[in-house]
Write a structure and sequence with these properties.
Length: about 130
Amino acid sequence: MNDVKRDRVLIVDDEDYARELLISMLEEMGFEAVIARDGFEGLDVFSDAAANFRACIVDLNMPGMAGLELLDLIRERDTDVPVLLVSGYSRHEVRQKEAKSGNVSFLQKPFTRDQFQSAFQARLAG
């Protein structure tokens, strides 16, 4: 397997601004970002190339398929890929899901570049 592909990160967020910000931060960290605009697109992209993603960043609140539903479907395909959930809602709302699904963490929006890098790297290490 090509190691470069293992440095790809899937971003699933319905907000253009959030996607662009995450792309910028990931590229600064040396990762290649692959984007999806909603949960359905995210699932298609992930399913087509699950073994090629180093991690996933998933917004919790999207029209159509919510982030927690997407997380369940990602876990059906890959139980180990690190997932960072992001949302404007509080962490309390996702604690149960974090407990049930390994290698998942949460970052509340808005976040700084340092907060993102710290949370993302901790998830990769975790």
